[in-house]
Amino acid sequence: MITLDDIRAARHRMGTAVLVSPCAFSHMLSEELGARLFFKLENLQLTGSFKERGACNKLSALGAQAQEHGVIAASAGNHAQGVAYHARRLGISATIVMPRSTPLIKLTSTESLGAELILFGRSYDEAHAEAKRLAGDTGKILVHPFDDPLVIAGQGTIGLELLHQVPNLEAVVVSVGGGGLAAGIATA
Q: pTM of the entire structure?
């Protein structure tokens, strides 16, 4: 379970490595729906997604073991790019296991960020099982895309920014995949 202090520590740990993304007012939707609506522009992150927040926090918190053994993750896209980018930035070797069905643009983007790619399985679940097996065999640290307290705390930094950027915030609408983003924002 993470706390608000964990999220504050994540924001401090990430420093300037992750953009404090703008929170833009939507005049047209606000008028149409009769409420003041804002959009958190996470698409402006270097990798185009909020996923890099969790990856940055997790990798920044790792010690010498990560430098020695490297990290491994399973992803079909955004998490892969976040892990690859921040691993390269921190001098940590990264291996990403991606399903064989991963779009070419995600493969080339992840590889261009310095990660070693392994194509395995037909689905994320199969790729994740292989990444977990390889982590056990190699000593690489597994960076889960949502089921990790450091990843959740990193993603929760969006909640801290929203509270600062939108005074009198009443509600936040969050998409839910694995739940890490929603858990982090709700905690903040």
A: 0.93
Pairing assessment for the beta strands 23-25 and 38-40 based on DSSP bridges: antiparallel
In the three-class reduction of DSSP (H, G, I as helix; E, B as strand; rest coil), residue 94 is classed as strand
Mean pLDDT of the chain: 95
* Interatomic CA distance for residues 34 and 22, integer angstroms: 22
Q: What does the pLDDT look like over 24-41, one tens digit per residue?
A: 999 999 999 999 999 999
Q: Dihedral angle at the C-alpha atoms of 173, 182, 184, 146, nearest 10 degrees?
A: -150
Q: Is 32 helix (H, G, I), strand (E, B) or coil?
A: helix
- Beta strand segments in the chain, E: 23-25, 38-40, 71-74, 94-98, 116-119, 141-142
Helices 104-112, 78-90: axis angle to 10 degrees equals 10
- Reported as half-sphere exposure (CB side, CA atoms, 13 A), residue 90 has a value of 27
**Model confidence at 187, in pLDDT bands (50, 70, 90)?**
very high
Write out the DSSP string of 83-142: HHHHHHHHT--EEEEE-TT--HHHHHHHHHTTPEEEE-SSSHHHHHHHHHHHHHHH-PEE
pLDDT in tens, 59-104: 999 988 777 899 999 998 899 999 999 999 999 999 999 999 999 9
Name which of 66, 62, 121 is nearest 95 in CA terms. Answer: 66
